[in-house]
Design goal:
By secondary structure, this protein is of the alpha+beta class. Helices cover 25% and strands 23% of the residues. Helix 5 packs across helix 6.
Length: 498
């Protein structure tokens, strides 16, 4: 990931017009990936997978793919681009079968190229093949890849290659190893976050790392088919009823005998806390809790922790909307849409020309002068990563006539990178790694700034502290990361890095 250029306004400057840079369009945390799997004989599984990926588009916008089997062979169609750019009606009609897996990708390992798009396909020594889609990030990829014949370019390739190699190897009973047994043997070797869907010609499998870092859920179709997806939103869009989550350390197999389950590791749940803040869609329900209600509660906590004498509460679209509604309700302040988001500006494919650089963040967000002029604003956002977007946003609001801008953030300062599937930048680029809240406030130019407390954020979710991965906030990595202590000592944030 490129580092945003260095020279920009300093904290002691009060610009009336923001200095701009198109890099801020992708400044925030990047989603990881979305996975979808379906076993539904008699259904149009390719179109259902397409709709499921559409519901998961927010989790990955660089590439998309679908693999389908008709019981005899697997056909894979994938490419770089958004879901509706990769697939056409004609192309979907050619993908006929009863079982499918789909994937939308944001690259956390490996570049944004066709070869890294998923599902990954591998031929099997016993005949046929497998197709695999992965959400998460392994931290022992290099170790796993050492004895593979062809060096892989990403961790999903490693998984697919390891499984393909294991299939057909002699089992203890002398029979060739099945794909199911290959998963049970291989999954314990993987270290990191992995929620995976994988298929052969006749079966669908889904498995999740023992920590359950990334979500993975099971749904049932009205006609009896099964669906597995990263979020309940993808289940609902295809008409599936949520059944349960794939448990940490569990392997699920779905075929014409129904759904069976077995464990490959004991569960040690540490679910990603940032899923609740930002990654998941508001209509997602995970481990029995509603993301929308949790975000509203985050706003209420912020209003209690950091009240301010203000006129209106504004969300930064879209992740700040539910929290802003909670803040406004708790503070008894009007809620207003004072920032309009251009929904047609993507994170990945917008490459402004030099003549458009001066537009910067205004390509993405635009303040409504009639709403903000002369007003004391509480602006609610999900996070501050490098500070560029917040700084330019505040400058835009002041240029539109805002009297005061008070920032309220629904996550604590992000002080540590994520190694489990979210691209949050390096420690050197994280403004929360080395600066105090007052220094960050000065840097972004806010009248006041408050991050929700870690206890307040955890309290807004249905989980206890011990069952959540909080590493990006407190540095306590539940899955050991090779070399992390060396990296911790290496980086210091400096204004010149942003």
């Amino acid at each position: 990931m490129q580092r945003p250029p260095g020279d920009g306004p300093r904290p002691d400057r009060q610009p009336t017009e923001p200095d701009v840079d198109p890099a801020v369009l992708a400044e925030g945390p990047r989603e990881e990936c979305g996975v979808f799997g379906i076993y539904a004989p008699g259904e149009d599984v390719s179109r259902l997978t397409y709709f499921g990926l559409f519901a998961l588009q927010h989790r990955g916008q660089e590439a998309a793919g679908i693999a389908v089997s008709d019981g005899r062979r697997i056909v894979v169609h994938k490419d770089t681009g958004l879901v509706n750019q990769v697939f056409t009606d004609t192309g979907l009609a050619a993908l006929e079968g009863d079982v499918a897996v789909g994937h939308c990708r944001y690259s956390t390992t490996g570049g944004s190229t066709w070869v890294n798009a998923q599902p990954q396909y591998r031929e099997l020594p016993t005949g046929g093949g497998l197709a695999l889609g992965h959400n998460g990030n392994l931290v022992n990829t290099a170790e796993l890849a050492r004895d593979l014949e062809q060096p892989p370019t990403n961790d999903s390739e490693v998984m697919a290659s390891l499984l393909a190699r294991e299939v057909g190897a002699p089992a203890p009973d002398g029979q060739p190893t099945s794909l199911e047994e290959a998963i049970v043997r291989t999954a314990p070797l993987l270290t990191g976050a992995f929620s995976v869907v994988v298929m052969d010609e006749r079966r669908l499998y889904a498995f999740r790392d023992p920590n359950g870092v990334r979500p993975l859920q099971i749904g049932r179709l009205p006609a009896g088919g099964w669906v597995v997806a990263s979020e309940t939103s993808a289940l609902h869009i295809v008409g599936a009823v949520y059944v349960r989550d794939v448990a940490p350390g569990e392997l699920v197999c779905i075929d014409d005998h129904g759904l069976t389950s077995r464990r490959f590791a004991a569960p040690t749940p540490t679910y990603c806390l940032f899923e609740w803040v930002y990654l998941a869609r508001p209509d997602h329900v995970q481990e029995g809790g509603s993301v929308l209600f949790a975000r509203r509660q985050m706003g209420r906590v912020l209003a209690r922790e950091a009240p301010v004498d203000a006129d209106i509460v504004l969300p930064v679209p879209e992740a700040g909307r539910d929290a802003a509604a909670g803040y406004a309700a708790e503070a008894h302040l009007p809620f207003a849409d004072g920032l309009v988001k251009n929904r047609y500006v993507g994170r990945t494919f917008i490459q402004p020309s030099q003549s458009l650089r001066e537009l910067g963040i205004r390509l993405k967000l635009s303040p409504v002068r009639e709403v903000v002029e002369g007003k004391r604003l509480v602006v609610v956002d999900d996070s501050i990563v490098r500070g560029n977007t917040s700084r330019q946003l505040i400058a835009m609001l002041r240029a539109a006539g805002a009297a005061e801008v008070h920032m309220r953030i629904t996550s604590p300062p992000i002080a540590n990178p994520c190694y489990y599937g979210i691209d949050m930048a390096t420690r050197a680029e994280l403004i929360g790694a080395d600066l105090s809240v007052d220094q960050i406030r000065d840097f972004i130019g806010a009248d006041s700034l408050h991050f929700i407390s870690l206890d307040g954020l955890i309290g807004a979710t249905p989980h206890q502290r011990s069952r959540l991965c909080r590493a990006c906030f407190d540095g306590e990595y539940p899955i050991p990361v090779p070399g992390e202590h060396e990296r911790l000592a290496q980086y210091k944030f400096d204004f010149d890095t942003v």
